[in-house]
Each structure stands twice: as C-alpha cells, then as structure tokens.
Amino acid sequence: MTSKRHHLVSRGYQRFFADGELVRLIDMQSKTYKTVGTADAFVEDNFNSWKDANGWNDGLEVAWRQGVEDVALPLVRALLSGADGQEHRDAARALAALHLARSYSYEAIHHHILSLVGAQEIEKVENSQEMLQLYASSKGHQPARGEIGEYIDAMVEDIRAGRRFMVEGMVRLFHFTLKLFEEHDVQL
Predict the structure, then answer these.
(1) Which of 62, 74, 105, 135 is the most buried (most CB within 10 A)?
(2) DSSP character for 142?
(3) Which of 66, 38, 51, 67 lies closest to 4 in space, CA to CA?
(4) Nearest partner of 5 among 40, 38, 35, 34, judged by Cα
(5) In whole angstroms, what is the distance from residue 58 CA to residue 183 CA?
(6) Percent of the chain scored above 70 by pLDDT?
(7) How many CA atoms within 13 Å lie on the side-chain side of 109?
C-alpha cells in the first residue's frame, strides 16, 4: 500500500510551477502566501482512499499514480518541450481529467449533494413502513419524533466517513471527463 498522504495535485504537475521542489501557495482572501515543498503541498490524508474491512484501501491512489501520473507526466513534459504526438495529447487529457476528479472542488460538491440527498430521503421515508421497521429492528424500539432524521443523518455520515461513495464518484468523473476531452485539445 502507498502512503496515506495523497496529493490532490500530483508532485510531478506541481514541478511545472515550482522553483526546484518549492511552490508558493497564495491565499487570495488574506493576500498572504507561504512557500512549501511539493511533498507537502495539496496533500490530504486518505483523500483517494476508502474504508473496507481491512482499514483504508489505497487502490485508487496506486492506480492513478501508476496508470496516469507515471505515464502521463513524462509525455506532458515532452509535449511542452515540443513533442507533438497523439500519445502526448492523450496524456494531457488524462492528466487534466485526473486533476478535475481528484480535487477539493469535487469533494465539496460531493458532500453538498450527499447532504441534499440525505435531507430529501428524510422527507421521503420518515413515515414509511420500511423505514419504521428498519429503525425498530436496528434500535429495538419505535422511533420518537425526529429520530428517523437523526438515524438517516448518521447513515449519511457513515457513508461520508467511509469515503467509498466519493471515491467511486471520482473514478466515474475521471472517465466521464476523459470521454468529453476526446475531441478537444487541453491546454496546460
């Protein structure tokens, strides 16, 4: 398994903008900046992982590193140095799709949608017989007013904490974006 620290922006891509291994991160709101190494920039613990029976599964991070970063970044570097082949353009598309799917923005939208879905489900099922039976079998008593909502909120939070649903969405977004990019050039 790989490290549990995952880069949302791959180190190899950061190096396009770095001074050696150093990048300057600017906070546009506070108008401040700090200089950090590419090893510590855009890093999040377990970002591309999900929980399974054995703990955190890093399979997606490994696949993206080996299948996209290790292959695409050298081809993109060659493209920027003047190479011009189909494999270079495909690599730029794959790298762009990777960084779109593996992003803070995707995570924020995912959590927002999950919250909306949870709220809608509460409204739909709060008084359904199936939910009342599920709750009673899980908790051992009939729900008091508002307990179904709390129960669904807890289930949504478990889904969010396990991250599998989000990671699966990242993979779908990556493939969807690649398909959209097939007929277009990508500028880096």
Answers:
(1) 135
(2) P
(3) 51
(4) 40
(5) 31
(6) 97
(7) 11
| d(C-alpha 110, C-alpha 165), whole Å | 9
Distance of CA 179 to the CA centre of its chain: 18
Query: How many residues make up the chain in this entry?
Result: 188
pTM, whole model, 2 decimals? 0.71
CA–CA separation, 170 and 98 (whole Å): 9
**SS3 state at 74:** helix
Q: Which two tokens stand for residue 18?
A: 């770095």
Separation of alpha carbons 12 and 64, rounded Å: 13
Q: Which residues lie below 8 Å from residue 24, measured CB to CB, with a gap of 6+?
A: 33, 34, 35
Distance CA 135, CA 186 (A): 50
Rg (CA), the chain: 21
Tens-place pLDDT, residues 101-113: 888 888 888 778 8
Residue pointed to by tokens 């880096």 = 188
Tell me the C-alpha distance between 68 and 187, whole Å. 17
